[in-house]
Every structure is written in C-alpha cells, then in structure tokens.
Amino acid sequence: MTRYVQQNHNADPNRTYATGVSSGAMMTNVLLGAYPDVFRAGAAFAGVPFTCFAGPNKWNSACAQGQITRTAQQWGDLVRNAYPGYTGVRPRMQLWHGTNDEILSYVNFGEAIKQWTNVHGLSQTPTSTDSPQPNWTRTRYANGAGQVLVEAVSMANTPHNLPVQAAAAITFLGLDTAGPSPTSSPSPTSSPGPSTPPPGPGGCTTTFTVTNSWPAGYVAAVRVTAGSDGVDGWRVALPLPTGNSVVNSWNGQFSATGGTIQVTNMSYNGRLSAGTSTEFGFQANGPVPNPSLTCAAL
After folding, report:
1. How far is Cα of residue 276 from the mean position of the Cα atoms in its chain?
2. Catalytic pick from 22, 181, 185, 277?
3. Does residue 145 share a domain with residue 37?
4. Does 83 lie in the same domain as 136?
5. N-term to C-term CA, the chain
6. Is residue 181 in some structural domain?
7. Of all helices (H) and strands (E), which one includes residue 61?
8. 178 against 23, higher pLDDT
9. pLDDT at 200
C-alpha cells in the first residue's frame, strides 16, 4: 500500500514514516522491523518492542505486563531475521513511554531501547541525556557521525494515556524541514550533483544529492524522473571514482560496489507515470563524488 502511494502519488521514499499510540505504537515497531526498505523512521508512543506481542491470541499478557525480557542482541536478531539478507540503512526510531503505564508495562520501554540500539549497532549508553520538559528524561543514541538514530523519552508519573507530543515527533522525523534530515541531528552536507538533460518521450532523468557526509564516507540519494511517456523500468549508470566503495544500498539493484555501477529498479519502483519520480540511495566509503549519471528506460 505504501509503495503504491509512493509510485502513483509522487510520495518521497526518503520521507516515509510510521507513528502511532498504544496498538499503533506496536504497529510502528512492526512496520519498521519488517519493512526497513520502506520506512525511514518512526515514533512509537506507549508501545512494545518488535515481536514482543506475537502469540496465538489477540492479547499477550506476558508482554503487556513486562514479563518478556531479552538481551539487546536477542531483540536485535528478531528484527534482522524479519528481513534476512537486508543490508540497507535501518529506520531511525523515537520511543515514548510513561513510567506509570498501567496497560503496557514501562519495562517494555527499556526493552525497546535495547532492541533498536542493537539494530543500529549502538551502545545502550546514551550519547546525550536531557530534560526538554519537566518530568521528561530524554536519552539519545547517536552514531559516529553524530546522527541520532534512536531517541527515547521517559515521562515521569504518566499513565498509558500519555499526552502525545506531535510536534516533537515531527521534529524527530524531519517533517518540519525542507529536506529529509531531522533537525535533532547535525545538518548533513547537501550537495546536489549534475542532472541529466530533460528526457524525451519514454526517457528518464536523474539528480544526484549527497544527504550526509563525514571524513571517511557519505550517504547519497539519486532521484529518477520519468519522461513524458512514463517508463516501465529504468537503469542508471552510476560512475564512482577510484577509492569509492558502496557498503549499503536501498531501493535499487546494484550490479557492483565500485567503478561504474549499473543500478536497476526494484519490482516495486520501476513503473513511473509521466513526470513522476522515485529514489534509490546508498552509503559509500571514500571521498564525496560529483558523478555524471545516465538514465535509460527499460
């Protein structure tokens, strides 16, 4: 359903998120765990970790009462095993929970932190702790580049029916900015690269953008836009300079990790109507390039 909207209504795959409260928070964990290639981030208010509520019945009392605890590695493995072979970037997660939650034990908050920090390869020790409002304790877990991948807010003396902080979730997701990077993280280097000429009928164009960079590597996105006749599939020639090596990729099939890489569409993002776009992305080691891409309709 989400991919259909992306393809048919020009929704941005890099700004596709999930959020919810209670059972909606459980579903947010499920969506981010099962579909890391679709969702870029989520905000879960008073939920439980991915798979915690699984069972033969509609209600899982053991999970609700905080009786299901696992190591961070075990929780992380449950997410990784939901999509075997996935090597792309994992969604960022924001977690909220009240300490007096009488429906879904506060224990689940700590278990979810264990799970998502492990999924991202982070320590359970926060990189920062603060109190943005009285009775709130916010812990953040950032990677080596300073990007906050997990954010957790504990609300003291708060029941299950917690006050939903929509504005804080919007900020974490990055929906209050013009680009895909959240304001709660350091601003990435955004370097639009060259675009291909306007397409003729049946053709396609590309735009290359560096969305984040650090001394040893970068993350880039390539937008593919269909010409006036639309396309049933596409292929992009992505020339990378010597010293560049792709380590993660998403929303495209990459033929190699270095040199000139041929990137073709996935099964869900190949057909584009006239003037509509899709994006694929990748993380690479090496200096930031400024490649000249070519796009061909298939």
Report:
1. 22
2. 22
3. yes
4. yes
5. 24
6. no
7. helix 61-64
8. 23
9. 44
